[in-house]
Structures are given as structure tokens and as C-alpha cells.
């Protein structure tokens, strides 16, 4: 065993310590109920065991729940209801980085726009009514073979039709009926399409089979397609540990720690740790979960506080990127280098600014982050906020003395970038704080409005 090896019972110990988190997340990702009493019970479990007892931020919980709609859209209303209960209980009015479709559905259902940065009033949301009664997509979702057959026997039925809908993960070409069967685990409809139309089993079919979770569909797909990293991603999303270990053991596909964090799959993360004993790598990704004691575990077993991943990012970079404020505070208290740079020369503050994580930005600045530190392209954190329209982060940076007129390697200031990207609100913030208006460099379509202020 290496010096980094933790004791041999680490998996059991950690699995036991974080059983509350694992069980709640498994329940959410595998949700199969619309009953009010069931949802109330889940809410109470989240409230008592995750938020109240262990300090998990309500905003992070709401974001995690709403972002599940893409992967289990049959129960979209259940996720919306749970998010609303949490927002009401903890008076949450704003949540950043909610996927567009969930933000829109929440607004449509409750009249509340949680992620203010989204502009869905433009009407570019596609096909939200596909699961209404009397559609083939409703029949697919419910594995309703009888009605599915009726649709396939109608004049003009197109066996090769593709669906483009924002209720499903993004696809340029849309999804075939067989792929949708795999997503929903609709085995009877799947068999009918295969026997009657010889519908093609695609790479997406196999990927979605790990999400839909039907063993017969998965077995059939494996005859025609070989699993890859995308399959592992969907296995991680499914929160079915058997699928994850199957891909790991049978196809030698590595568990992706970043996906484990993004999709709240701590159990798969622990399996990776148990198999590899790689304390430093696990430590770098552990802040995504935002569980302070989890970071403390790795630090107590010798993790390097400034360890980097393949892109040169430290655990503090991850904290800033994923808005893990509590994790950032733990790291800083243990001496993490606040101004450490990744391979692009970016600090954690660049990450916070890019993603409009104003609280993380405050924490970093208050502990000595260099506010005008530049990446290898000469961009400061304020430049990042201009590129990504991060208004609140920009206001924080400016209030702490960030230089409005700092130039990148191309001589561009933050105002030039905001104007070029047509980010009007952040441009107004910059101007109101004295940004130098260089008319010659402002893009033509915005020159008049900015120069007249």
C-alpha cells in the first residue's frame, strides 16, 4: 500500500457517515411519485437531515432538484413542487445556474424566476406539450403499448420521426422513438419498434438505457453498441450503483469524479476512492459536494491542499466554479493558496466571476485574493464577469477596487467586452463606476447608447 492509502475499511466508514446524503440523493434521482404525501415526506427528510442538521445550502438543494427535470421529465411537476417547498421554507428568491427549462417551468407554475440571468421570454423553448394526452410521446413515457400501437397504425405514421424538445438533454438532431423508449424504460414499446419496424439501436439508445434502467432494453442495446464514457455519465445520473460498477468492472470505464459531484452521486465517488486509494485526486473534486467534513476527511489523511487536476485546477478552483462556499471556507482555513493559477493562468476568483458567484467572490477577496490578477490572456476577474454577463459579481469586484479600465492582451477593457457582447446591464454598471468610454473601440451597434450616457 502507498503512503496515501487510507485504512482498508474507508468505504464502509464513509458510506455510513454520509448515508443521509446518499439516501436522499438516491431518492431524488430515482423519483417515481407524484403523490403529495410522498413529496411531503421527501421534503421533510431533506429539511431535517440535509439542510437543518448538516447545513446544506437551500439554494444548492433547489438547483440540484430542478436540474433533474432533464433526466426524469416524467416527474417534472414533482421536482417543481419539492423546489417550491424548499424555497418557501427558507425564503429563497434567487438561485443561480438553474437549467433554462426548469427555470422556465418553475416560473410558469409559480410565477417566480429563480435564475434572473435567463431570458426565456423570447419564446425559444421547444415542445413542452409533448406529454399531454393523446400523443405518441405520452404513450412512450407510460409504456402504454396499446395506445402506442394505435399511433403506429395511423396513416402517415413516420417510424423515423425525431423529437426535439427542451424537456430532454440537448440534441442537434432530436431523438428517435426507440431512443425515447430507452430514456423512459418503455420496454413494451421498445420491443414493438424493434419487431415491427426494425428500428435502429443507436449509441444514444445504449446511453439512455442506463438512465431508463430497464434491464431488457439495456441487454438488447449492449448487443449492438459498446459502452463508453457517456454511458458512465448516465449511469452516474441514474444513481444505480450496480450500473456504475458494471461499466467499471466489465468495460474498464473509469468513474468520472466531476460527474459524481455534478450529479450528487457520493456513493459512486466513494467506490472510485475505494478502488484507487487516490486521496489527492478525490480531494480535488470533493468540494463539488460542498460537505465540509468530507474535505476534512481527505485533509486528515494527507491530501495536498494545493493539489491540481489535469487542467491545473485546485480544490479551491472547484469550490469557486460550483459555488461551494462552505467548502471554500474550509480550504482557506487550511491554508489553500487563494491566488493559485490553473493552466490558463486563472485563479479561483476568475471562476467565481465567470459564474456570477458573488458570495464566493466575497470570501476569496476577504481572504486576500488579488482582485486584478490576470490570466494568460491578460484577463482579470472583471473581464470574466463582462464576458459572461455576471452583473452581481462585477459589482462585488468593483466595490473592492477592481480596475475598470484594465486591458487584456488585445487592449480590450471590460466595457469593450460588455459592449461587444451586448451585455447592456453590466455595461451600465461599469459606466456608472467610471469606466472610460473609448468610442473608437466600442462596437458600432452599441456605441450610440453607451456614449450618450
TrEMBL record:
Residues 197-272 form the DUF3447 domain. Signal peptide: none annotated. SMART domains: ANK. It comes from the Eukaryota. Keywords: ANK repeat. PANTHER family: ANKYRIN REPEAT AND SOCS BOX CONTAINING 4 (PTHR24182), LD18443P (PTHR24182:SF13). This is DUF3447 domain-containing protein. It comes from Trichomonas vaginalis (strain ATCC PRA-98 / G3).
Amino acid at each position: 500500500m502507498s503512503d496515501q492509502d487510507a485504512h482498508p475499511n474507508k468505504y464502509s466508514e464513509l458510506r455510513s457517515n454520509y448515508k443521509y446524503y446518499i439516501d436522499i440523493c438516491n431518492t431524488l434521482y430515482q423519483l417515481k411519485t407524484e403523490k403529495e404525501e410522498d413529496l411531503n415526506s421527501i421534503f421533510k427528510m431533506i429539511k431535517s437531515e440535509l439542510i437543518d442538521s448538516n447545513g446544506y445550502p437551500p439554494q444548492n438543494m433547489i438547483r440540484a432538484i430542478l436540474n433533474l427535470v432533464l433526466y426524469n421529465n416524467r416527474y417534472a411537476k414533482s421536482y417543481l413542487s419539492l423546489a417550491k417547498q424548499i424555497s418557501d421554507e427558507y425564503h429563497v428568491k434567487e438561485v443561480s445556474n438553474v437549467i433554462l427549462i426548469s427555470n422556465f417551468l418553475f416560473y410558469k407554475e409559480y410565477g417566480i424566476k429563480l435564475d434572473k440571468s435567463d431570458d426565456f421570454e423570447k419564446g425559444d423553448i421547444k415542445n413542452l406539450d409533448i406529454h399531454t394526452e393523446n400523443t405518441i410521446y405520452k404513450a412512450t413515457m407510460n409504456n402504454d403499448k396499446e395506445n402506442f400501437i394505435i399511433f403506429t397504425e395511423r396513416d402517415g405514421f413516420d417510424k423515423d420521426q425525431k423529437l426535439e424538445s427542451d424537456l430532454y438533454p440537448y440534441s442537434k438532431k432530436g431523438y428517435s422513438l426507440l431512443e425515447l423508449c430507452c430514456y423512459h424504460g418503455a420496454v413494451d414499446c421498445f420491443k414493438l419498434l424493434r419487431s415491427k419496424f426494425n428500428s435502429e439501436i443507436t449509441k444514444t439508445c445504449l446511453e439512455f438505457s442506463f438512465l431508463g434502467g430497464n434491464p431488457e432494453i439495456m441487454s438488447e442495446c449492449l448487443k449492438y453498441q459498446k459502452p463508453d464514457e457517456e454511458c458512465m455519465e448516465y449511469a452516474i445520473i441514474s444513481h444505480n450503483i450496480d450500473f456504475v460498477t458494471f461499466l467499471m468492472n466489465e468495460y474498464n470505464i473509469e468513474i468520472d469524479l466531476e460527474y459524481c459531484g455534478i450529479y450528487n452521486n457520493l456513493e459512486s465517488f466513494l467506490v472510485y476512492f475505494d478502488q484507487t486509494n487516490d486521496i489527492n485526486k478525490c480531494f480535488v473534486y470533493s468540494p463539488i459536494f460542498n460537505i465540509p467534513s468530507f474535505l476534512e476527511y481527505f485533509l486528515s489523511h494527507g491530501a495536498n491542499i494545493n493539489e491540481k487536476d489535469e487542467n491545473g485546477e485546485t480544490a479551491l478552483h472547484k469550490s469557486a466554479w460550483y459555488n461551494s462556499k462552505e467548502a471554500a471556507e474550509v480550504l482557506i482555513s487550511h491554508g489553500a493558496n487563494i491566488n493559485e493559477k490553473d493552466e490558463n493562468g486563472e485563479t479561483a476568483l476568475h471562476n467565481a466571476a465567470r459564474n456570477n458567484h458573488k458570495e464566493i467572490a466575497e470570501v476569496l477577496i476577504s481572504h486576500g485574493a488579488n482582485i486584478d490578477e490576470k490570466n494568460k490572456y491578460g484577463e482579470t476577474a472583471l473581464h470574466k464577469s463582462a464576458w459572461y454577463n455576471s452583473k452581481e459579481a462585477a459589482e462585488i469586484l468593483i466595490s473592492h477596487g477592481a480596475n475598470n479600465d484594465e486591458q487584456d492582451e488585445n487592449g480590450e477593457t471590460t466595457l469593450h467586452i460588455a459592449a461587444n457582447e451586448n451585455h447592456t446591464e453590466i455595461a451600465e454598471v461599469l459606466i456608472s463606476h467610471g469606466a472610460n468610454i473609448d468610442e473608437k473601440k466600442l462596437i458600432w451597434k452599441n456605441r450610440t447608447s453607451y456614449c450618450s450616457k
